[in-house]
Structure prediction request, 292 residues.
Amino acid sequence: MATVKSIEAIIAPPPPHMVGDGFRVHGFFPGGSIDKKRMSPFFLMDYGSKIEFTPSTHLRGVGVHPHRGFETVTIAYHGRIAHHDSAGHSGIIGQGDVQWMTAASGLLHKEYHEESFSRTGGLFQMVQLWVNLPAKEKMSAPKYQEITNAMMGKHQLANDKGFIEVIAGDYQDTKGPASTFTPLHVSNARLQKDADIIYSFPSNWNTGILVVDGSATINGTAVATDHFVLFKNDGEEITITSTSDDTVLLVLSGEPINEPIAQYGPFLMNTWEELEQAISDVSAGKFGVLEE
Ligand code: MN
Prediction:
């Protein structure tokens, strides 16, 4: 008999900050009541809540910077985001698409508003996750998965109440296309009003839900737009009823990586020695070359 995965906290969006000049984000974690291991394997979640950008010929974003030891996962809800990295990958993701970039042993990349979106301006909303890698995979080769919305698994709900869009892991018999290094789940529940759904994850999996749009009652508690629900590790099932049309919930769950964490800026390793190595490897040009 499954038991309830109960709510530990409902967290309001922290005051936003700018990442470069293109991403106005609420840094939900790590920080506050969610320490660097609490949502493992998810280390970081920056949420760019809805914002209107004015037209610009300058491409707003973040310039060339390194990463090592983890994956960056960028989910576009509104607007278009472009990417280039020193491993030779590039891409553009639009509304509903996901970019899953494995930095692993290290690369340089830049992330910015796509050119046509910059010129017209408009509504922008996104999430970036940092997904940690286990020690044995931290120095594996960089990889890039562009996951278009059409590639995602879609679990349709009865009576036109919406669907679950699976990015990684599975929802019942529906699988997501992302390949991952450890067991985890990422999906968007796209719901019409009064949709009833149940998610089930192992009790030890760290789990959270971000209300990206609309509102929902989660395990009997009302949760508003832009709020994040953190769950206890006490049971399996989460019961959700959407309370508005066009509700979007980002659902994250994963098996914790129980290893030491050492983080400095864009590097996420296990020890301080490995961080020092990363810094010296960047200086030595071992992360490759990328034009600004
Ligand atoms: Mn980055």
